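About this split. The held-out portion is used to measure sequence recovery: a designer receives only the structure tokens and must propose an amino acid at every position. Recovery is the fraction of positions where the proposal matches the reference. Here is one held-out target exactly as it appears in the evaluation file.
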């Protein structure tokens, strides 16, 4: 199969399109013919050699977590998924080979029917970002009517879904982004949008019950400063792993609850998200679709940190 691979960790130029052996489908896995693959910051971090990359056992490695495509093989004849079904889902790179490739083998528990109102490119933009937003906003923060929630990096992949889910479940949403994304973030349902470059969010946000922190202390001490907007016993959910090592101690000192979050592939959550998307309650914004050959450019853009919504790689033409 054709795949975008790396032979070693390093810069975006390490990404090369090449023929590699097809993945072997085993046990409960489905084999999916990938049409489009989402690009996520973790792909670039792994390519660069972060902690996750230390789990790579064989080279070359195919990166890429999420995908949309068509089922090629199922585990057994009466499986609920059928060959030809349009699906979207999330792999477990680098434990298994990734989605920047024509074929991916993934647990059937990681795959759900694609939302019928989306194109393949739009569907590939959903799994990791939207499941992360669901995990942070719904499962961890237990979003509810009237809850005051501040979402950082609201214009990005996770943030755009987080704002929409928080609003859908009745939260009073405040969101941070740069000035050029103000209208976009407001259109997602944020009640109040703060330009983090011209205002200090802690001066204007008012008291919050929850902060969904998609930045941490990697920029302007965003994590630490977030503690200042939370009510006593409020909750900060910090999503970028390793972005704020002293979070637990700092939060405890101030009487704030704090937790990290790590996304897990979950077909049931994908099915619920698919319903919300098809009902028009959640929309998907794709910033750009690039061909697989432009993987290096996609990684440069994602590392720059200012993608609006999602970046997607086209792996194959849409099937008829
Ligand atoms: N733990 C997990 O399971 C998990 C899962 C998914 C993602 N993550 C992590 O969560 C983070 C967010 O992921 P993502 O996919 O949403 O990233 P992304 O799409 O690349 O985020 C880009 C957005 O970040 C915004 N931004 C950049 N600096 C900002 C700042 N200082 N304050 C506010 N907004 C800022 C940009 O808005 P402007 O252009 O307006 O500045 C841009 O729209 C990443 O670190 C990712 O690795 C972790």
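Reference sequence for scoring:
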């Amino acid at each position: 199969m054709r795949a975008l691979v790396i032979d070693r960790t390093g810069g975006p130029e390490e990404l090369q399109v090449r023929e590699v052996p097809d993945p072997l489908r085993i046990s409960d896995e489905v084999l999916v013919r990938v049409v489009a693959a989402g690009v996520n910051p973790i792909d670039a971090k792994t390519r660069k050699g972060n902690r996750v990359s230390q789990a790579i056992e064989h080279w070359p490695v195919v990166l890429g977590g999420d995908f949309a495509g068509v089922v090629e093989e199922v585990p057994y004849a009466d499986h609920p998924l059928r060959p030809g079904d349009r699906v979207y889902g999330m792999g477990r790179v680098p434990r298994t080979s990734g989605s920047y490739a024509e074929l991916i083998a993934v647990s059937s528990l990681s795959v759900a029917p694609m939302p019928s109102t989306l194109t393949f490119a739009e569907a590939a933009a959903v799994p990791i970002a939207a499941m992360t937003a669901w995990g942070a906003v719904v499962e961890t923060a237990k979003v509810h009517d009237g809850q005051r929630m501040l979402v950082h990096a609201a214009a990005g992949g996770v943030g755009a879904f987080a704002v929409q889910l928080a609003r859908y479940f009745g939260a009073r949403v405040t969101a941070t982004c740069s000035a050029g994304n103000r209208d976009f973030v407001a259109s997602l349902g944020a009640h109040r949008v703060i330009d983090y470059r011209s205002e200090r969010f802690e001066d204007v946000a008012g008291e919050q019950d929850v902060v969904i922190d998609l930045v941490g202390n990697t920029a302007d001490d965003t994590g630490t400063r977030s503690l200042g907007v939370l009510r006593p016993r409020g909750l900060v959910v910090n999503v970028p792993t390793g972005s704020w090592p002293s979070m637990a101690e700092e939060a405890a000192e101030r009487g704030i609850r704090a937790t990290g979050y790590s996304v897990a592939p979950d077909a049931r959550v994908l099915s619920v998200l698919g319903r919300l998307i098809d009902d028009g309650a959640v929309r998907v914004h794709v910033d750009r679709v690039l061909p697989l050959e432009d993987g290096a450019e996609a990684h440069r853009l994602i590392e720059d940190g200012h993608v609006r919504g999602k970046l997607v790689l086209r792996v194959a033409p849409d099937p008829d």
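Annotator remark: The pocket of NAP is lined by residues 40-42, 128-129, 132, 152-153, 155-159, 176-178, 181, 196, 214-215, 219-220, 222, 239-241, 261-263, 302, 305-308 (CB under 6 Å).
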